[in-house]
């Protein structure tokens, strides 16, 4: 009589698979480094490709026991930072640590400075191999680029650190997983190539999909007789997306809305989300993301780059999306959750538009403009413009301000570039009218371009002084305007550039 195996143990989605674990090519090296006194390990790679499993498989073969030979924690755990600090502090002073090995998962969630500090501490622990037979050591697990900050100030840690960078799993390895699962359950998948494609080089996703296929066919344990499993992958995908949408659509909506959602304005975070949908990888550099976007959309994405992390983690709004997506301004994006990656791969843009309450036409209309706001002004009021620009950028309004664009404008024909920008690139223009505006060559040029026939309702005058209140040729006095004469006068009297904050209410009114 055959010993029956349970589906949840064969295609296992939580923990180490007992029947379908496929050892990676570097497995022997990892095991050797784990048993090497004083040798720390750093294992990097996207979620779902076996980073944590390779460590626990080695522990299993070495007969290591939790809380005797090692302690495991994730940086998502409450109090994780204190446990790490306590272990390293004790080890550095030669005090008992309780266990010889500390396994730190999701290491990338620690601040960059702390990771660099840990690099310095690990070097000292390695030196203790000369003092003790089994010095304490650490195994660090995280997304790609985790080791950049770790080694930044500890270049001499390198020889004491076994570093392994895991990448997309090959179809050969996924195929082996499928074969071992088939043998364990006495089944055959009819369309293996489809399962290989759907798994997208991810062990965890392969386990999950195979589990769903078997469950949909009523296979919950080893079959008495071999059975061929036929399945409708589109049907399974649709069922998965229905299930996943309940879990992940709120995450997608929070990210897509960014810091302040404006249905009619630029939507840089929505564009980032849709670009991530187009790139079927767990790790996406910022340059790669820009590559898939139209040239017209790139300024908005670049403008919000410094604030993307604030959308992913916003304690004031009780938002923490790091379990699903991580961002580093230098390294780019990492999709932490393989099911979230699958959700994005199969997300229809029209579905997210619907969830956000915007029509396709409004999205296309917003995409006509690279910037929400452009500024036209004489240099004498620059400090006023700088305050307005800073306030707008805090709200993720995409602005064209010459000082922000100096690197872009170098070596270009300014007349041609500015003609395009002031004729078509901005949805609105804040025109700061003062006594100097009509005297300057560039402001006259900008005004002439902005007031050409073909566009309307796009100029918002900002009246800075009495001369500005008289308007300018081509900008009628009847246009709704923002009047800052009192504020500007008081600011000049004080001689301070920090006393012009009240423009924000007028700006919010013109940029809903």
From TrEMBL:
Source taxon at top rank: Bacteria
Residue ranges of every copy of the AAA+ ATPase domain listed in the record: 37-136
SMART domains referenced in this protein's UniProt entry, alphabetically: AAA
Renumbered residue ranges of the record's region Disordered: 493-512
InterPro entries in UniProt: AAA+_ATPase, P-loop_NTPase, Toll_tir_struct_dom_sf
SUPFAM superfamilies noted in UniProt: P-loop containing nucleoside triphosphate hydrolases
Descriptive protein name: AAA+ ATPase domain-containing protein
Organism: Ramlibacter montanisoli
